[in-house]
Design goal:
about 180 residues, ten-stranded antiparallel barrel, about 45% strand, globular
C-alpha cells in the first residue's frame, strides 16, 4: 500500500508539473493594436448599390477582457424582381494568432465560414481583411477606410479561385457611428 500511495503521489506531481509546463508554453492573447480603435462602436449602414442594396448596422466591440474584438452585422435586403427579400446576419471574431498577427474568423447565417488575415495600413486610416486563398473557393477582401471622425467607407471584393489575386468589387457602401 505504501508503494501505491508513493507512486500515486509521484504521478500526481508529474501531472501538475506537466500541466504547468504546457500552460507556460501557451502564447497569451494580447490586446489588439490601436488600429482597431477607429472601428469600435455601433455603426449604421449607408446604402450599398447592386447587389448589396439594403439597410443594416454593425458593431465592433472588445470581448474577453479586451483580448479579442467581435463584429456583429445585420443587413436587410428588399425584394426585387429577381429575388425575394432577405436578411443576413454574421459574426466575426478578431484575434491575435500565435505569431502575434491579427486574424479573424467569420460566420454567417448562410453557413459560410471565412478565415481572414488582417492588414492595417501604415497610416492607420484603413484596415483590410484578406481571406486565405483556397484552390476551390472564391477569395474575399473586405476594406474599412476612415472617411471622417465618425464615418467609414466599406469595400467588399471577390476573386475567383483561378485568379485569387484579381479582385472585383461586389459591394461598396458607407457607414456612420450612432
Amino acid at each position: 500500500m505504501k508503494n501505491t500511495k508513493g507512486l500515486l503521489g509521484i504521478c500526481l506531481l508529474g501531472m501538475i508539473l506537466l500541466g504547468s509546463c504546457l500552460y507556460a508554453q501557451q502564447t497569451p492573447a494580447t490586446t489588439p493594436p490601436d488600429i482597431w480603435k477607429f472601428l469600435l462602436g455601433d455603426w449604421v449602414g449607408e446604402g450599398g448599390g447592386d447587389p448589396g442594396q439594403g439597410t443594416g448596422w454593425f458593431t465592433f466591440s472588445y470581448d474577453l477582457q479586451q483580448k479579442i474584438i467581435m463584429r456583429k452585422n445585420h443587413a436587410e435586403y428588399p425584394a426585387s424582381k429577381d429575388r425575394p427579400a432577405a436578411i443576413h446576419d454574421d459574426l466575426m471574431i478578431v484575434y491575435p494568432d500565435a505569431s502575434k498577427k491579427s486574424r479573424a474568423i467569420y460566420f454567417d447565417s448562410e453557413g459560410h465560414v471565412i478565415n481572414y488575415e488582417l492588414l492595417p495600413a501604415a497610416d492607420g486610416n484603413s484596415l483590410v481583411f484578406l481571406s486565405d486563398a483556397t484552390p476551390s473557393a472564391p477569395r474575399f477582401r473586405l476594406t474599412y477606410t476612415k472617411s471622417g471622425d465618425k464615418a467609414v467607407k466599406i469595400l467588399f471584393e471577390m476573386a475567383t479561385p483561378d485568379k485569387p489575386d484579381t479582385f472585383m468589387k461586389y459591394i461598396e457602401a458607407g457607414a456612420h457611428k450612432k
